[in-house]
Amino acid sequence: MLSPPASIRALAFHRRLPLPHPLLLPPRPPPRLGPARSIMPFSTHPSDQEEASEAEEEPLPAAGDAGEVSHEEWQRWGTTSPLPDAVAVVVRELLEMEAAAGEKMRFGGVGSKLKGDFKDIEDKKHRAVYEKLADSDKKLQYYSARQIGCRLLGSRGYLCQKCWLPMEDCMCSNILPCKLWRGIKFWLYMHPKDFLRQNNSGKLLWQVFGIQAAQLCLFGIQEHEDIMWDAFQRSGKGKISFLYPNKSSVPKSVSDLEFDGSALTSDLDVVGSRDEPFNFVLLDGTWSNSAALYRRLKERWTALWGEEDIPCISLSTLTASVMHKLRPQPAWDRTCTAAAAAGLLWELHMRPDLSAFELEKQAEAVECSLDILLDALTARRIRLGRSITRKQRHNRNCV
After folding, report:
1. How far is the C-alpha of 87 from the C-alpha of 152, rounded, in Å?
2. Which region, left, alpha or beta, applies to residue 306 given φ > 0 means left and ψ of -120 to 50 means alpha?
3. What are phi and psi of 46, to 5 degrees?
4. Which residues contact 200 (CB under 8 A, 6 or more apart)?
5. Whole-angstrom Cα distance, residue 165 to residue 158?
6. Given CB 3.0 to 4.6 Å as the disulfide criterion, which of 21, 78, 122, 151 pairs with 196?
7. Where do Acidic residues bias regions lie (predicted)?
8. What is the DSSP code string of 188-256?
9. What is the DSSP string of 335-375?
């Protein structure tokens, strides 16, 4: 099935017309704020059991090119940071083991997992290194670096470095970039198992808004986490909210957020040194992994500011993401990361003090990118002769 031409997509973007695909939901109007149930604004990708079934379907990617990962190659995957030291060490060790074994590494399945005899060799070495690490934080850092290192090598020459889809399914030319209001910034706090995942929706945010406006922070990668928390300290704790509902002792919504006068400027390009943006953190991982993401955020928040309760907000809208058609969530009140970001932008737009910043257009840009991702994933499954529907994992009605 061919993707709609760019001209039709542009029309759908500006007029909110339905894209010409039979699986897509019709475009929804701006959400109505009210006492509706809160949605879970972080990605709830398939469970571990679902990942196992998908792994059998995925073709084996081509073996990675020889050579270590450079800083430039690392940054092309969607980050501004230098190559993390722990990831560089893991990649170097894998390449050295490959040379010593005289066998090319093979990867396949969800997360570009190692395959064949080399997997057994690497697994024994990994366990030996892991057991020697007495500190739990070092164990986490090594675990995250190993996950990311394997994904980097397994995805070379196979996935597009911008959209994380196989080269033949690249959707980058269909994405319409859009400027995000400089008064806010997104942080994608991503679990390493979601890094380079083809159906991950968080990647759409920096594809649409750029890697400075929507910044990637990988869980357990020290350099990434330090960059994010340094930004939080510059902005101050009053300009940080985590989209993770029902975790604060006093539940908050978008209407409770306070934007100071210096941030309320219509100029998208000029921000003074004192005008740090409001930081919105989206937890990007499965439902089970999000608990670990939240715990680590809470521990660092408490260590930095001495407060047990971190500022979490809920969205008051309840609408199904178009990704439900291909990748159902565990329940209708949970949604993918990009849909949560779009919902947040819609609710910010509904505030009278923010209505001048065209946040509704920015929300539409994210929703349009979700349609494009769904098209690309659906077309790929059809071409490979796979089902384009999934077994429902919830019994709730979204009405």
Report:
1. 9
2. left
3. -55, 150
4. 43, 45, 164, 190, 194, 284, 337
5. 8
6. 151
7. 49-59
8. EEE-GGGTT-TT-STHHHHHHH-TTTEEEEETT-HHHHHHHHHHHHHH-GGGEEEE-TT-SSS-EEGGG
9. --HHHHHHHHHHHHHTSGGGGGG-HHHHHHHHHHHHHHHHH
**Bridge partners, 329 (sequence order):** none
Q: What is the maximum span of the chain, computed from C-alpha positions, in angstroms?
A: 65
What confidence tens digit (pLDDT) does each residue in 297-307 have? 999 999 999 99
| Distance of alpha carbon 317 from the chain centroid | 20
Q: What is the DSSP letter of 309?
A: S
pTM for the model = 0.81
Entry field: residues in the chain: 399
Tokens of 96: 């050295």
Q: How many CB atoms within 10 Å of residue 75?
A: 15
- Judge whether 337 and 201 are in contact, CB under 8 Å: yes
Find, among 298, 368, 332, 296, the residue nearest to 44 by Cα.
332
pLDDT digits (tens, 9 = 90+) for 217-270: 999 999 999 999 999 999 999 999 999 876 666 668 999 998 876 555 544 444
Distance of CA 215 to CAs 101, 141, 191, 228, 310, Å?
38, 20, 14, 9, 20
Quickly tell me which residue has 């090594």 as its tokens.
142
Distance CA 232, CA 251 (A): 21
Q: Which of 44, 78, 45, 29 is nearest to 343 (CA)?
A: 29
Structure tokens at 27: 């475009």
Q: Answer for the pair 283, 244: CB distance below 8 angstroms, yes or no.
A: yes
- Does residue 151 sit in helix, strand or coil? helix
Q: How far is CA 328 from CA 47, 155, 182, 334, 336, in A?
A: 11, 25, 33, 10, 10
